[in-house]
Fold:
Amino acid sequence: MGSDNTHKNKLSIANFAAIKTAIANNEEQLLKELLADQAMQDLEKNYLIDLAKLSNNLIILKLLEDIPEKV
Structure:
């Protein structure tokens, strides 16, 4: 049971890293795909928004602002 939970966490970390890379590279379409049906905690979402502000890509900022927050 513990290994299944660890596996899920690794996928989550890998996905978050891919999202950060897509933001840094201004890859809007890839970011849309990575964010599909995804919810995030407020801290994660705000970190990504701050990262996106560095490139001032308004489309990416809008995509990130529209992410639903986990409860």
Q: What stands out?
A: Residues 26-66 form one domain.
